[in-house]
């Protein structure tokens, strides 16, 4: 009886040791299998070293240039956003956007935000927008983003005022078109900071509206000449 008991004890010890060795090898194997490749680790390290840009631009702006990003509204669901020198000026989150044309005026020398307004271009008073545009001085930068419908109340006077600020597409802006623009008075040529999409049932991305537009770039201080550093980024549907 003692011999059989000893044998059972030794068999139990053997089973425990064997199981422990198996578990240890299994764990080591899985650790090696799940170990991240070196390139993933290096990519994470490099991403941590990326420099944050103002307004989330794809690259930093040079000295004496202001960073900006303008995004038009998406249909009549998501309002536009406007960022200047890393300051979010207008956005749906701030609840300060409106149907029609959203406009921000910035001091072209110091970069300070002067005012922000929205003008209902479907059922509003177009004369208010005309009056607003006539009071823009030569030292101001003008940022514009459309939302829902920017063109129903558009008239020849307003088109000319925007054209004087450097716009190429204001003269054809119509019902539910998408438009983003940055301009100023006394430009030597048309502003390079502008994107436009016509409302077209055959090409519209949304039901009844064209795709939203995003414009980003580096604009020189007003004392310098505007030049072509703008960039359009196509966006996917926001829902």
Written overview of the protein:
With 239 residues, this protein is α+β, with helices and mostly antiparallel strands. Helix content is 26%, strand content 24%. It is built from four helices and ten strands. The protein has helices at residues 2-34, 38-48, 126-134, 156-164, and strands at 65-71, 81-84, 87-90, 100-107, 113-119, 140-147, 178-184, 194-197, 214-220, 231-232. Strands 3-2-1-9-10 form a five-stranded antiparallel sheet, with no helix packed on it. It has a five-stranded antiparallel sheet with strand order 5-4-6-7-8, with helices on one face. Helix 3 (126-134) packs parallel to helix 4 (156-164). It is elongated. It starts with a helix and ends in a 7-residue tail after the last strand. The model is unreliable at 26-49 and 227-239 (pLDDT under 50).
In short:
This protein is of the alpha+beta class and 239 residues long. 26% of the residues lie in helices and 24% in strands.
User: On the 0-100 scale, what is the average pLDDT?
Assistant: 83
Question: What is the terminal-to-terminal distance?
Answer: 79 Å
**Rg, Å, rounded:** 30 Å
Number of helices: 4
Name the strands of the widest sheet in spatial order.
3-2-1-9-10
Strand content: 15-25%
What level of helicity do the residues show? 25-40%
Number of strands: 10
* Main β-sheet description: 5 strands, antiparallel
**Which segments are poorly predicted (pLDDT under 50) over 5 or more consecutive residues?**
26-49, 227-239
Q: Looking at the structure, what is the overall shape?
A: elongated
Q: From the helix content, strand content and strand pairing, which structural class follows? A: alpha+beta
What is the H/E string?
HHEEEEEHEHEEEE
């Amino acid at each position: 009886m003692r011999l059989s008991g000893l044998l059972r004890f030794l068999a139990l010890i053997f089973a425990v040791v064997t199981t422990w060795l198996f578990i240890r090898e299994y764990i080591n194997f899985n650790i090696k299998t799940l170990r991240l490749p070196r390139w993933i680790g290096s990519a994470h390290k490099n991403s941590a070293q990326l420099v944050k840009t103002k307004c989330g631009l794809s690259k930093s702006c040079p000295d004496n240039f202001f960073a900006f990003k303008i995004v038009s509204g998406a249909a009549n669901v998501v309002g536009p956003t406007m960022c200047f020198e890393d300051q979010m000026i207008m956005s749906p989150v701030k609840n300060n956007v409106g149907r029609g044309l959203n406009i921000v005026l910035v001091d072209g020398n110091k970069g300070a935000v002067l005012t922000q307004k929205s003008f209902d271009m479907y059922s509003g008073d177009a004369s208010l927008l005309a009056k607003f545009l006539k009071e823009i001085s030569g030292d101001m930068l003008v940022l514009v983003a459309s939302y829902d419908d920017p063109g129903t109340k558009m008239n020849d006077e307003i088109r000319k005022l925007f054209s004087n600020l450097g716009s190429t597409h204001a003269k054809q802006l119509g019902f539910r078109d998408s438009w983003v623009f940055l301009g100023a008075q006394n430009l030597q040529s048309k502003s390079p900071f502008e994107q436009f999409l016509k409302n077209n049932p055959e090409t519209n991305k949304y039901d009844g509206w064209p795709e939203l537009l995003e414009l980003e770039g580096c604009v020189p201080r007003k004392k310098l000449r505007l030049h072509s550093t703008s960039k359009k980024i196509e966006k996917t549907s926001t829902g």
